[in-house]
Amino acid sequence: MGIRAALNGALAPLLLGLSLPAMAQGSDFLIIAHRGASGERPEHTLAAYDRAIDQGADYIEPDLVATKDGVLVARHENEISGTTDVADRPEFAGRRTTKLIDREEVSGWFTEDFTLAELRTLRARERLPQLRVANTAFDGLYQVPTLAEVIALVQAREAETGRRIGLYPEIKHPAYFLGIGHDLAAMLVEELHTAGYRNADDPVFIQSFEVMPLQRLDTMTDLRLVQLVSAQGGAADLPGTTYADMLSGEGLAGIAAYADGIGAELRLLLDDEGASTGLVDAAHAAGLVVHGWTLRKENAFLPFAARVGDDPAGIGCESRVLRALVEAGTDGVFTDDPGRSVTWRQGMENLLCTVIGD
Prior knowledge:
The chain has helices at residues 12-17, 46-54, 116-119, 147-161, 174-179, 184-194, 212-220, 243-246, 249-256, 266-269, 279-285, 319-328, 338-345; strands spanning 30-34, 59-61, 63-66, 72-74, 97-101, 104-108, 166-167, 170-171, 205-208, 224-229, 261-265, 289-295, 332-335. It is an alpha/beta fold. It has a single domain, classed as TIM Barrel (Alpha-Beta Barrel).
């Protein structure tokens, strides 16, 4: 998930001029910790999730893939050379291979070729070391967590803090995994139901870029479902159907038949002038909630109007994008930096943007 290509300098008119009262930044706008507090810790580690909880995120987002022995673990992709030290482990050199995943060739090391015990010998690394140098200090400290461990962390922190902490899992490449004998949808439902998450009012959203797994899930659980959509391409399990087709009036009605919301790339929600594209209103009319992805604090990912200085790794003023999303009526946002977004939601955005002078 990313917004660099979409939110560029053309957003300046709205982002510079929009001024919303603190009330509009209220608690109904969800802060979803994208892969945990991944702007501060290596992504998809218990440390990243725990930090997001400390910072007040409403939901944490584990992306889920399967091990060789059928355990759900949290990685953004099943190819793990970018987020673990597997490439430096001589004992696993022979596991490097090339696979066809969602009609694309991918080379590297894959979770489905490792048992959980083998995977646990690896250690997580920062995925964006050039931009997030400080995070590299945590390289080598954390294991790849299982979904069971993520749930246990959330429930322990709920008991400690007295507040509900939501789970927003994404099943990755479910059609591919089903083809090799791992039914991610069924595996996820079983773990969630066993952990006590069963009803639509439980703090869980299940998301996927594919369609048929969500349609199956709609028959398997009452937990809320979210169809992920991008500005380009289409669902891997529906060749010939684009996400643009799915976001027409008829397409949104079709999504509403099996899902409760859409998770949309930010450039689908804000046009080149930074105003609403109308998708949020159309989705709401179809009965769908809308969560946008993904907000990041580094200048490299921000529109020109929200950048501070010229360093791509420098920290910008992403509250300007947050304000634009609220003006568009968006229901929540995936963010790598939940603490900053929570600060903004509390009406203290000047603490984030003192250099710019909003």
